[in-house]
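Predict the holo structure. Ligand: zinc ion.
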Amino acid sequence: MTLVLAGARILAGLGRLSDPATGDRRIPYRAELVDVVIDGDRIAAVVPAATAPAGAGVERIPLDGRWLLPGLWDQHVHFTQWAQTARRLDVSHASSAAEAAALVRRRAADSPDEDVIVGFGFHDALWADVPTRELLDAAAGRPVVLIAGDLHCSWLNSAAAQRFAPGSTEAVLREDASFAVTTLLAAADEATLDRWARDAARMAATRGVVGVVDLEYGWNLDVWKRRIAAGADGLRVEFGVYGDHLDRAAHLGLRTGDLVAETGGLLSVGPYKVISDGSLNTRTALCSRPYPDGGTGVANLSPGELVERMRFAVEHGLEPAVHAIGDEANRRALDAFEAIGAGGRIEHAQLIDASDIPRFARLGVVASVQPEHAMDDRDVADRLWEGRTDRAFPLAELHAAGARLAFGSDAPVAPLDPWAAIASAVGRSRDGREPWHPELCVSREVALAASVRSTVGPGQPADLAVLDRDPFGCSTDELRTMPIAATLVAGRFTHDTLR
Ligand SMILES: [Zn+2]
């Protein structure tokens, strides 16, 4: 069966035209209409409009000049947690600990059968009061776990601490202690989680997403093999390996980029993920200058340990993806890449010293960034990184220095929607506010290129997104709500309003 997407508009930098005489060539200008011929899971040809083959065995779908992009990738998600988030109590708008506790009290009254109340999204950096166990104990007589919007800390009441973190005394658990709790919550009831994951994949398809890099905590290989075997075929998934599973991955011979057998080409091995520092909201991002409270953040590993683990991973074919948010963490991560003489990715890259910007391109380190975080964190950054925000989320400078940008959401930290990331990168504004450091905005072409992994060209995977709005003729707010007419993964429709 041949599929022809007829009369599509494709972007010069993201498309190639078939040319029998000279081989493929670039699309000369972006207004040229083309027909895209799909055979099986690949693009067979891209030809001038109205010249594609027709007849029996060809399904022709007119796009009427709609924009056709390579399918979008979200290159940093925590998929299981994202799938759970829709079911969780939203505490993202609580402006104090007391307000968050009041939301828990209401939820407890509304959902008497809920065994554990799990909330998500609080940002305590700007709270005036202190989150205590007692506050949540008084709000609900059952376990309560509230997870911070940056995933780097969680606030538990006494019953939850007893069940998920026995021996702990703090109300707010940070970093590893907190990840342990979220891992336990994610382990509950696989069948339910898998069903929610399928719903989340379907939602992603409605936003034009064809693939995700899943950096969920835990052993993701078996999770996704199980989901795909059960019929989850809506997304390509590249899964990350965490430090505690590095030996296991190396022992199995998993190498970054390898396809996993019997998954229809949907599942592949992603990077080795190492969390080198904390986060801004939790004030654990490792910085060269102190926070207002005097600390400079947390290094989860010494520079020597970081190099040692990254070298081990690289020797076993696993590309390092180093979580680094503060400028000192980014410098150390770049130092480590330099020391091992291999490239990879830095996740987040939120605060970067000017002298480190050119090192990304030079060392072959991809800046895996989440532009929507800049909108979520601008007020916290203005306070905690006062005087330094001209180099916070410096996408334009990274791009100008030749660094490759890869956009993601870090869902559930931000919604799994590449159009939010694209809009934030292009406009650095949301909710009608003034743009934040507009000099660091990138062009629409750059933002789109950072959100895809293929092109609309012959031989490329038939992973495609059809847009219902001109991405160059709309406002940045309209980019945020981009309507998607159809999404295809490997030549299959995963979202379809056209037929
Ligand atoms: Zn993450």
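Residues 76, 78, 215, 410 surround zinc ion (CB under 6 Å). The chain has a mean pLDDT of 94.
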